[in-house]
Write a structure and sequence with these properties.
Length: 339
Amino acid sequence: MKEKKHVLHILRFLCFMIILAVFLTYFSNVLKVSKINSSTGRNQIVQEFNAEYENSIDVLFAGDSTPLNSLVPAKLWKDTKITSYCLGYNYAYPSEIYFDIKKVFERQKPKVLFLEASYLVGESKVIDNDLYYKDSVNRYVNYIDEHILGSINYVFPVLKYKSSFKNMTVNDLFRVHPHALNNIYKGYSIKTDVVPPPKDLKVSDNNTTLINNAEIYTKKIKKLCDESNCKMVLILVPQIAYWTKTKHNIILKLADMLNVNFIDYNINTDKYIKNFSWNTDTADGGTHLNYSGASKVTNAIKNFLLKETGFNKSSFDLKIINKWNKDSKEFFREMNSKW
């Protein structure tokens, strides 16, 4: 009798898990698309990336909001016929970027990954010389917690897209949901304002260090790149409102540890970025670049890509070329009306 009860409990548990998995899978599909055009954010990346043909992206830019406002894939295509995409979010955290890059590598085989490293650095009350927090037990528990959550989000995106619940309607439960939404900006987020930094700008350099788990997940990203024969490059784009020499030295040490290239466009900016000016090229006082600044940074990235990384652009099918020509044409038509 007891054995039958145990079997019954096990069957109930299995039924519950199957129903939960079906529920999460279904709502992952519903929420990732719901009101995407009026509520852009983390729920847009899967659909917009899925709109790109498989194995059609040669260069990937990743990080927080900084690279999204600093690199213009349509311009890179127009100048060189190299395909690229910007992947990132406001307030990105290391595990999130790792799992999204992992998802990208399922459909794409980029030859170069430019990882904008600003999101890896923050302030901590505890600093030591090894890029880690001193409390090793707390660090390990935090990593397990973050990795488990990231893994669940990776399998069931509904938990990552949960903010879309507030925009969902009853009709969203029954409508046909597309799996791809084309983005002519290719992840680039345009800013058209011109707001120079204040003349008395001062940037705090207190307790600057790698944030928790930053080194661990950057190593994981490097491993993904090695397994996919993708060259990884760490960069810092111009960001006068947040850049410090300490931040530069931390990322430089990380780059040396990973044995990857590192270029900081905040040092010798005039040398690397032709005609760059903080009076004309930032949209919000030195945090993000406007279209003028992003175009100039894209030129600098293009020169580095072609001269320093040994990059050879892919030969694409006509359908990919036609798509990029069409999207690029639309992008610049919109840009001409905005800028």
